[in-house]
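Structural prep section.
Before we set up the soaks we want a predicted structure of the protein with pyridoxal-5'-phosphate in place, mainly to decide which crystallisation condition to try first. Input record follows.
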Amino acid sequence: MNDIVQPYDVEAIRRDFPVLSTTVRGKRLAFLDTAASSQRPLPVIEAVNHYERTSHANVHRGVYELSQKATDAFEGARERTRRFLNAASLREVIFTRGTTESINLVAQSWGRSTLRPGDEILITWMEHHANIVPWQMLCEQTGAVLRVAPIDLRGDLDLDAFRALLTPRTRIAAFTQVSNALGTVLPIAEMIAAARAAGALTLVDGAQAVAHRRVDVQAMDCDFYVFSGHKLYAPTGIGVLWAREAVLRTMPPWQGGGDMILSVSFNGTRYNELPYRFEAGTPNITGAVGLAAAMDYVDAIGLERINAHEQRLLERATTALLAVPGLRIIGESAHKAGVVSFTLEGVHPHDLGTILDAEGVAVRTGHHCAMPVMDFFDVPATARASFGCYSNDADLDQLIVALARAQEVFG
Ligand code: PLP
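Run finished without errors. Recording the tokens verbatim:
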């Protein structure tokens, strides 16, 4: 890990990410799709490699030394995650496959055992499908009703409408901290306070937030916080569900199998303690090791500094993109993270993506798993550039040049 001192040395950070020095179609790679999945730095790659070479065995089961080493690595990652989130206890940190699985776990365990017909679940219009569909499924199973708080044309939540939609029947409000499609940073402190005052639990989808701002679940005062490792410079297939212990204690296990039990007989099964009762089967040990290394990595740079760097890029990108004729930015909140969604007149976003790719620019094009947002803005899809700790001015310059090229081709 580089010893990074002021000012923010983005070129030193870039040297930690081997993929960034590769070329695409003979061009320098301008990777602007971090919101979909971030790249991995050497310390993460090396931590995974070291674990694979020296310590792998199944966890929690063996008395032999290698299994104990693997268990220490896995449980060490849990403690690292607890510190990263400032969770009160290790019992509150559950490893999952990612944000999607974490939300499904909450819906199927807490929701299915708690909700009655006519109970309400409140989400917002700018949720990722992962924070819509599990609740729709839960509504079908329980007779609960899904309510959706509206957004405005800038891409901001209508906070008054959100408050008005909280009723004595609202059992949970589930919302994203940062919109992946628009970049909007939601006023989650106000939303959590309002939901709590109405007697509802809260779930915060931190998928687009954890790599960009410090999260303190105790200060946040939510009940569930979920995120994916692969958006935090860690491998895919590992994620986290943090839940308040008092709530977890009311929840039945979701998936059954090994590791989540204390004893099994045909007369009945006794479930394991927290958090293990929610981790059936062999977990993603390698992923957890990588996740812990990724947390060390971003903490060594400083999340506040990463955020400041991305905010500067966001401002520069917004100004430069608005100067491109026919370009419309979708999502113009005054509170945004490093995400810019846009359309270009006369060029379908998918064609745009293909032309940008030929210029070495990797941006996401499509509905970004947020089809209701696309419907709201009446666009079939957008192109989206998103930034991470390693994004630099050269990436932006390359994007602007590539957009001019797309206009030549389609103009
Ligand atoms: N929520 C948000 C806001 C996201 O941006 C994403 C992924 O893009 C998800 C949920 C789903 O994450 P995963 O596919 O890692 O489970």
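Observations: The first strand starts at residue 23 and ends at 24.
Flagged for discussion at group meeting.
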